[in-house]
Design brief:
With 197 residues, the chain is an alpha/beta fold. It folds into 2 domains: 101 residues, Rossmann fold (3-Layer(aba) Sandwich), CATH 3.40.50; 90 residues, 3-Layer(aba) Sandwich (Rossmann fold), CATH 3.40.50. The structure holds glycinamide ribonucleotide. The site of glycinamide ribonucleotide has 15 residues, from α1, β5 and α6. Glycinamide ribonucleotide binds next to α1, β5 and α6.
Length: 197
């Protein structure tokens, strides 16, 4: 059973969807730890209510990013995490962290990368006037929203879409695609698997 460590910052709907897929047997994995970098994240309160091993680890409580991420690594390793899943984790991971879990960190981003990296990708898509957008699940490397792509799903942009309506349409797909990508990782069919140690 693939052991997951899930990092969140906010709402946590992807975390909830993954939990649901695991509960119903659709995803053969185990959530070993949930870490939020935001004490007020609704996803954190939800995870604790579910009885998941969930905690806030806050950057300001540490004197440097390196020390903060060292703590994250310690917790992930103590919990025997095999795959780190970023689920709306809104911070850039440092090199030592990425090296420690090379090809074992994945992220979901609400655009068809390499288009619309960074913040507000749905707003960027609307501003660009594209007729399709979507989501990308990818391995995390040292860049921002770069790294080998595991899967992508196209989502149409409709006339009259606002950032909210487009985000909702993409999010609905995120909730099935993230589990699918984790299943691919577990079955070692995800691109980049050859490089895994
Ligand atoms: C999701 O749409 C996710 O793709 C996005 O944040 C949202 C988190 O929602 N992530 C990024 O933009 C990362 N660059 P959630 O907290 O409800 O899962």
């Amino acid at each position: 059973m693939l052991k997951l460590g899930i990092l969140i910052s906010g709402r946590g709907s992807n975390l909830m969807a993954l939990h649901q897929h695991i509960q119903t047997g659709g995803l053969k994995a185990q959530i070993c730890i949930v870490i939020s970098n935001n004490a007020d994240a609704p996803g954190l309160a939800w995870a604790q209510k579910q009885g998941l091993n969930a905690m806030a680890v806050l950057r300001p409580d540490f004197s440097s990013k390196a020390e903060y991420e060292h703590k994250l690594l310690e917790l992930l390793k103590q919990n025997h995490v095999e795959l780190v899943v970023l689920a709306g984790y809104m911070a850039i991971l440092g090199k030592p962290f990425i090296q420690a879990f090379r090809n074992r960190i994945i992220n979901i981003h609400p655009s068809l990368l390499p288009a619309f990296r960074g913040l507000h990708p749905q707003r960027q898509a609307l501003a660009a006037g594209v007729k399709v957008s979507g989501l990308t699940v990818h391995f995390v490397d040292e860049g921002v929203d770069t790294g080998p792509i595991i899967l992508q799903q196209i989502v149409p942009v409709l006339d009259g879409d606002t950032e909210e309506t487009l985000s909702e349409r993409i999010l609905k797909e995120e909730h099935t695609c993230y589990a699918q990508a984790i299943e691919m990782f577990a079955k070692k069919t995800a691109l980049g698997a050859d490089e895994r140690t």
